[in-house]
Amino acid sequence: MSNWYGTLPLRWVAKKIGELFVERREKVADTDFAALSVSKGGIVPQIATVAKSNDGDNRKRVCGGDFVINSRSDRRGSSGVSSMDGSVSLINIVLTLREEHNIGFFHYLLRSHNFIEEYYRNGHGIVADLWTTRYTEMKIICLPIPPREEQDRIVRFLDWKVSQINKLINTKKKQIELLQEQKRAVVNEVLPSTGEQVRFRNLFMLIKGLNITKANLTEIGIPCVNYGQIHSKYGFEVNPDINLLPYVPKSYFETNPKSLMGYGDFVFVDTSEDIAGSGNFTYLNSQTVAFAGYHTIIARPIKPLNHRYVAYYFDSPQFRSQIQQRVNGVKVYSITRTILNSTTVILPTEEEQEIAVRRLDKFCENINIIIEKITAEIYLLREYRTRLISDVVTGKIDMHGVVVPKYEAVAEMSIDSDEETDEPESIQVVEEQEVNEQQPLHVIINAVANNKVSNKVMIFKRLVLSAHILDNICDEPTAGHVKFEKLLYLSEHCAQIPLHSEYKRAAAGPYDSPALHSIDSQLQKIKWFKRQHIEGESRAYSRLEKADGYKQYLNSNFDVGQQAVIDKLIRLFKTAKTIQCEIVATLYGAWNDFLIEGITPTDDEIVNEVLTNWHEEKGRISRDRWLSALNWMREKDIVPVGYGFSTKRISK
Questions:
Q1: CATH of 196-347, one of 2.60.120.10, 1.10.510.10, 2.30.38.10, 3.90.220.20
Q2: What's the mean pLDDT in 409-427?
Q3: Mean pLDDT over residues 448-453, rounded?
Q4: What is the residue extent of each domain of the chain?
Q5: DSSP string spanning 392-430?
Q6: Residue among 652, 592, 584, 651 nearest 621 (CA)
Q7: Residue 321: pLDDT above 60?
Q8: Same fold for the pair 1-145 and 196-347
Q9: Mean pLDDT across the chain, nearest whole number?
Q10: For position 331, what pLDDT does the model report?
Q11: How far apart are CA 144 and CA 13, in angstroms?
Q12: What is the pLDDT of residues 115-167, one digit of tens each?
């Protein structure tokens, strides 16, 4: 349990990165060595929208075959083997192999999810968003290394299988493109072609969005709609009461009041990496205010409008073509206020607008359901791909005797609607979703077939689960924040709900701080539950006016079997003391970690893991109590199966 890759097969060895690589630190200028971008899709020629330093003479040299990785946590997963010579910013670490190995093997290994987490764990910083891993910290990380001939087999096998998966993903992306085209064609057909032609400038006042970057975003505050969300997630309409958005500080009310959107305001992106994205927009379909973020232009109506009709019109080819004919650019296209003001909007009678909206709402709802299902398939195929890579590069799958046939090398198509680009400087060639590598392959494959999961659904599913737990326990005097956390962890893992949480080994048991902060914020935002602190009481949550709102989503998010497991856990722990919940959740986590690594532990091994490798606070509980709790867990059938992520140690 002391490493991140598990038990190694015979003939595999563990070596530190410093034994395998040497750091390339040669300083060069981008005038002599072409600028490269280090993205989640690998190493590519520098993207035109990337944030550039004025210090072009102070960059690191990269040679073809070098492995490059971004050292910052907010660019986690940005790495790869470079196929070209060039230069990268100083924030990146450039590595060259010392010995004769297959660099393709390291391209797969060092981009696997578990390594990325280990790389992050070995870093340092004040808070998660300001976390950095230096080479001095990276070089002590151990890697699982097979013999050279097995490295070659692994690379051939993964190149083949990944191409097969990419081909399936690309087919599904094309299906989405065709559905989007069909939707636009119907929108164009349904919208009246005649009516009053009004200049855009006579309908809207244009206002610049916030001049901020991703670093200005917070976990609480005022919702903020950015360039990335409009391009990828919340195009056409956005509702902060439902859609999960980042936040900016409340102080922006005073410093940037003009960038605050109200109901019916539209917001356009001012930059696109292709013609097709020129004209992408959303409108605020909620009474809850939100800020327009970076690289946006607010279009605020100056007279009463049917906002939904106008949104359909803005999404139609007849309006988009006006913008696309006017934009300029090569790699990046700019949408300016002048371009928007020069367009024309056709406004038929109010009755015609209402008829068009009713017809389009019905049609688009059906199309969007189909797109959501295909998006779920893409997400889970990626998850299968990531898990397959992880298992192969750490020796969980034996490559001996595997024959790789002739195949066509296929890369995944570039960014599409389900891949978020948070800001122009983070545009990627192939943006990977963060996924759960530890989920059993048969679960992943079955989920693909049944269209069960998508990233957006997963986040909302977590909120519904949290609300159901709190609705049942929040009146109990022992219902504190820690107890809620442990019930959430046990529910996710015992009921095998794919929430993809990443729990750390904290003093009170498994703990996923980012997820819990988000849950607390979103539950209050949608007026279900509020976290509270009452002097002299342990109860941590109270119901808000819409607390029953989650119930309508319960059956659509959890099947009968999952609900039965969740309700059983609630009954068992509803009146239990917090320490009892902590003990069970901790034992479950340690036991589950063994199973993920393919080890069936004894009770003594589980307790030793808790007392030795979890957290120093666990020593306050006697060994006999831990062993007794294991027996109780078996009696109540709270037995792990190796589902989910391994828990991670918190760096000291």
A1: 3.90.220.20
A2: 50
A3: 37
A4: 1-145, 196-347, 454-649
A5: HHTTSS--TTPPP------PPP---TTS---SGGG--SS
A6: 584
A7: yes
A8: yes
A9: 85
A10: 64
A11: 6
A12: 988 898 888 865 545 578 999 999 999 999 999 999 999 999 999 999 999 99
CATH architecture of 1-145: Alpha-Beta Complex (3.90)
Q: What token pair was written down for 474?
A: 């929040």
CB-based contacts of 7-14 (< 8 A; 24+ apart in sequence): 7/597, 7/598, 7/599, 8/144, 8/394, 8/395, 9/146, 9/395, 9/398, 11/146, 11/147, 11/150, 12/144, 12/145, 12/146, 12/147, 12/150, 12/395, 13/144, 13/145, 14/142, 14/143, 14/144, 14/145
How far is Cα 208 from Cα 414, in angstroms, rounded to an integer? 29
Distant-in-sequence, close-in-space partners of 72: CB < 8 Å, separation ≥ 6: 91, 131, 132
DSSP class of residue 552 equals: G
489 or 414: which leads in pLDDT: 489
d(CA 87, CA 25): 11
Q: Which amino acid is at 20?
A: L
Q: What φ, ψ does residue 152 adopt, rounded to 5°?
A: -65, -40
Tokens of 210: 């916030």
Residue that has been written with the tokens 């960038």 in this structure: 259
> Which tokens hold the place of 156?
């051939």
Q: Residue 230 CA to chain centroid, in angstroms? A: 16
Report the C-alpha gap between 638 and 187 in whole angstroms.
52
HSE value, Cβ hemisphere, 13 Å, CA-based, for 540: 12
Rg (alpha carbons) of the chain, rounded to whole number: 26
Separation of alpha carbons 406 and 401, rounded Å: 16
- pLDDT one-digit tens code per residue, 184-238: 889 989 999 899 999 999 999 999 999 988 778 887 889 999 988 898 889 999 9
Quote the CA–CA distance of 556 and 579 in Å, as a whole number: 33
* SS3 (DSSP) at 144: strand
What Cα–Cα distance (Å) separates residue 25 from each residue in 65, 110, 178, 576, 594?
A: 15, 20, 47, 57, 40
Confidence class for position 3, pLDDT limits 50, 70, 90: confident
